[in-house]
């Protein structure tokens, strides 16, 4: 087991295109860290540099206390699980899992023992003599994970390991990966573009965009207090509602914004670094918007555009006259009375309204 | 009220539409079926014609070799069916010439040719397919360009080189010039380029050196290409006539192709039937080899990724 430390890591594939633009990150021993970000933002590149499959253009990578920049992939004490599984098609499952040990000259008896132990953990003992082509996608994924476990690495690296599986299998494997981490307590770095996987698996999430870390934190911290608009929009499903607004009042521990048509909204943030008249973006999560009493004069009038019944919850998409953005509300599953065209009144609770400045940076919550 | 009315109208008219389109699609399906049958028949006719075209020399040789009475040899199509069938000519192949000696020579020479061609092609193709270095494309183009040269161009320089190496009139002299071939390098390069990068990376993380990656992952995964290259090389080596007949002068070292030609044709030839029987016996080992390699022709990459 080991920590992983990145110091100002940079990566250029060609001279003028910088894919990773200076990443600093401390990953604790035994931590489950998820790199998440849109496709093409450099997550795989980051992981492959840690694995030793890609040269590090600039910066320092420490695995444990060792500077690992120039250490060969096989000597870093890492094991990697690939999105495509990358099983050796000409070997049986057992040979696939034992290949690294065999190359390292481990005695046959010990290889068998470790392979059997890993197969037991993953419940693939009955598959050990099969070739990969006789396995289903989920089974192949287990073998790929088994191949990593057998090596007893200091750090596990996963590159979108679940994205080739169907939805239900993905859920199962997600739970099993969590369990695996609890059992092994090994440092794990996991790459995904799926924010649900990130939220459910991670001890800490690292949100990437365009080769730059946007924010690092625990899933809930990130969900509640995104540091900028990108993170706010990326985490959460359905997305956070983001509305253009103008700052009209800065008070002690609160800000007042005006939406078009003279609607005013209050937010419990410390907006002292902003000034009246600034363009800002207001953010509120779908589950925080409240349906208000139709007689409530302070609530905002709106009209229902679309209703989606998901069983446990109802998603309502509504339109406020004069505002371009469609607003999403997450309501309890029993609210089945709403339908297209209904007039409603909604309220934005002050403590749940987030505020971002013109550069997209969040104002601190005052509470 | 009016809204639901118009909705009904839309519904009924769309139902009519769908009935008409079903009919249309049925007609289309019929004509499509006929087209497919026609295309299939055409394909099979072509394949059968090609099969006859390629098989007939062998069938002819076999039928003539099996005829103890050679009087029908030149009568078409009667010659395709043995007259008074018997193995007499096949037995005489072994008494009229040192067939087994030639067979052994051919086997040894072909075996080492195949091994060397595969090893050299694999080693040359790996860097061309998988490593980045300046001049890579130029080297590849130069290798491919040698395919343009007629093989006769090589005869004199190779002869002089082998003379200086003292390899004239030896097995090695007869086969060494065939070891490095552009075709094999090209074939293996194509095969290696198809291997997913993840598979190679997985082996690298598992601790394999470049050579281990090559021999323990890339080569087994490329089995179909290697089988194809082996067969191709075997046929070429087995049938090689001109070069061995130039280099080898001792009768005991001759391969089959040269031996059969020297002993059974020309002014002292015994009979066409004997030549035909010898040819059939010469081809047989190649067919057997093909039967054994055939199972490697299925894709070696199934199950690797996704
Ligand atoms: N081998 C390569 N050569 C050049 N550019 C590459 C290479 N691999 C990835 N890239 C580029 O680097 C960027 C990040 O890629 P990647 O790390 O695969 O993204 P992600 O895994 O986040 O989807 C992309 O713009 C991609 O086109
Ligand atoms: Mg990727």
Automatic annotation (TrEMBL), chain A:
Alphabetized Gene3D superfamilies for the sequence? 2.40.50.100, Nucleic acid-binding proteins, P-loop containing nucleotide triphosphate hydrolases
- Molecular functions (GO terms): ATP binding
Q: Which Pfam families match?
A: ABC_tran, TOBE_2
Q: What protein name does the entry list?
A: Sn-glycerol-3-phosphate ABC transporter ATP-binding protein UgpC
| UniProt domain ABC transporter: residue ranges | 4-235
The record's annotation in SUPFAM superfamilies points to: MOP-like, P-loop containing nucleoside triphosphate hydrolases
Q: Which UniProt keywords are given for this protein, alphabetically ordered?
A: ATP-binding, Cell membrane, Membrane, Nucleotide-binding, Transport
Taxonomy of origin reads:
Bacteria, Pseudomonadati, Pseudomonadota, Betaproteobacteria, Neisseriales
The record's annotation in CDD domains points to:
ABC_MalK_N
Which SMART domains does the entry mention? AAA (SM00382)
Membrane spanning segments where?
A: none
